[in-house]
Amino acid sequence: MPLDEGAYRLAYFEEEGFTRSACPSCGRHYWARDANMSTCGEPPCASYTFIGDPGFAEEHTLESMREEFLSFFEANNHTRIDPYPVAAHRWRDDVLLTQASIYDFQPLVTSGTTPPPANPLTISQPCIRMQDIDNVGKTGRHTMAFEMMAHHAFNTREDLDDPDQYAYQGEVYWKDQTVRYCDAFFESMGADLDQLTYIEDPWVGGGNAGPALEVIYKGAELATLVFMSLEQDDSGEYELKDGNRYTEMDTYIVDTGYGLERWVWVSQGTPTIYDSVYPDLIEELLDELDLGFDDHERQLLDAAAGMAGRLDLEEVDDVDVARESIAEDLGVEPDTLAEMQRPLEHVYALADHSRALAYMLGDGIVPSNVGSGYLARMVLRRSVRLANELELERPIVELVDAQAKRLGYRNRSTIRRMVESEVNKYDETLERGTRRVRQLADRYSDRGEEIPVEELIELYDSHGIQPETVAAIASERGVPVTVPDDFFAKVAQRHETAEVTHEQDEGYDRVRDLPETEKLYYDDQ
Fold first, then answer.
1. Mean pLDDT of each 10-residue bin along the chain, 525 residues long
2. Around Cβ 35, how many Cβ atoms within 10 Å?
3. DSSP code of 316?
């Protein structure tokens, strides 16, 4: 059976006079103080209402908002801990990059095998989500690099026969207190609590699941409250949206995520999240590129940004149709709007990508052909392509270095050397790869067929050839190419999961019976 209403009917909701409603647009159930709220409040069911009308009492930067959050939870008996690297493969063998704060504690802490560094705790964890790479710059709200502010509590059931089998015991707090903290933090920021909605949306991931609440304010999803209490079990009583069955765990975890960048965005009310997070860098790039827009053009771009909440390359069937709809609403030709938006979108993406690279290279990921190194190389090459299309004179290495300086990395000289080396290698690879594209185009021209997406991905994987470059060369030979809107997400998907293999050769038998290596550096560094 699926999770029912009882998983979300909290005493706190009743105390505060919340009403449960079904959204007439998307069908999901949500809780709100305002019984007259007509939708769940999240785009595309509703629009952003904070753009030009900030949602909090004061404007905040990344630094000040992070401190507001961490200090709030410290004042509420949580211990502040330092963030982990973005290179999650250092402590996990199933993933490459840190995509959420809970990654820091999986699998050993969440399973109860080892204790958490504190309980409860609060953290602001840098994350990278490669699946959002194609959305960056286009939707106005997606960032590949971001910080997930969070508070966590690790609990075990109190009716266990042997509670000492786990590294922590009893309940710290659970659903009601989690929502109470969420409301209280919004209130401390000067939010109008009547505009808050809590959308029911069960969460699944990594073999675990549980009820979850998406927290929407003035159209923006600012937090997700996950109550991790289920584990995958073929004979479990709960069947969730991923088609798998789940059963109750002995441990149950408060797993929250508050997107730092979105909180900053709502506090400032700028047209896009990038204008809030990277204001100085974006202004510098726009000045350097001489992308001066007159007042009318600026108004059009700002209005289009406000409507871009309807764009999500994972959900929109045809991005061009969605863009045409926005242009129609604004009374402007789609091509005219696209011509203005394209360079601006590239600038936004460069700001985000350079920050992602600073995190990755700063935390010790070395560009390569495998694993997390491949993902770093992919982001860097895409950045080079965007800069080339903009005819940007400033080297990519300067953008990455500026972000590394802002983030406080001490290994900036190493980061610079890696970026410069990769850019030089990429130039050489492009020369070799272009010859390969011409050969491939000739082959498909003889067949009278379109070059398939699998070939585009392979060309990018092997030679770093951008799909647009393939399309341009193929068109010279009359061969059509269709580049999917989520091309880079498809490439990243190939490499996002860490695959640990243990290969044995014939020489293994010669050392099979040798004793284990004694790691003396653990005893005397």
1. 84 96 94 93 88 94 97 98 94 90 91 94 96 86 94 94 92 97 98 96 87 96 96 87 89 96 96 93 91 78 69 54 78 82 91 97 92 92 91 94 95 96 83 77 81 83 75 78 79 63 49 72 59
2. 10
3. -
For residue 46, which amino acid is it?
A
For the record, the structure tokens of 426 come out as 């990429």
Are 240 and 246 in contact by the 8 Å Cβ rule? The answer is yes
Three-class secondary structure of residue 187 per DSSP: helix
pTM: 0.85
Cβ distance 98 to 104 under 8 Å?
yes
E-assigned strands of 113-159?
Answer: 121-128, 145-156
What is the Cα–Cα distance from 47 to 140, expressed in whole angstroms?
Answer: 13
Rounded CA separation 349/144 (Å): 9
Pick the closest to residue 303 from 51, 126, 4, 18 (CA basis): 51
d(CA 155, CA 172): 6
Q: What is the 3-state secondary structure (H, E, C) of 73-123?
A: HHHCCCEECCCCCCCHHHCCCCCCCCCCHHHHHCCCCCCCCCCCCCCCEEE
Contact 258, 248 (CB under 8 A): no
Residues 86 and 126 sit within 8 Å (Cβ to Cβ):
yes
Cis peptide before 120 (omega within 30 of 0): yes
- Report how far residue 12's alpha carbon sits from residue 113's, in angstroms, rounded to the nearest whole number: 32
C-alpha 485/C-alpha 131 separation (Å) is 12
All domains in the chain, ordered by first residue: 58-191+201-267 (3.30.930.10), 279-495 (no CATH)
Q: What is the Cα–Cα distance from 337 to 330, expressed in whole angstroms?
A: 9
String of DSSP letters for 192-249 = -GGGEEEEE--EEETTEEE-EEEEEETTEEEEEEEEEEEEE-TT-SEE-TTS-EEEEE
Question: For residues 271 and 51, what is the distance between their CA atoms, to the nearest angstrom?
Answer: 6
Q: Is 148 helix (H, G, I), strand (E, B) or coil?
A: strand
What is the C-alpha to C-alpha distance for residues 465 and 191, in angstroms, rounded to an integer?
A: 47
Joined together, the tokens standing for residue 263 give 């909180």
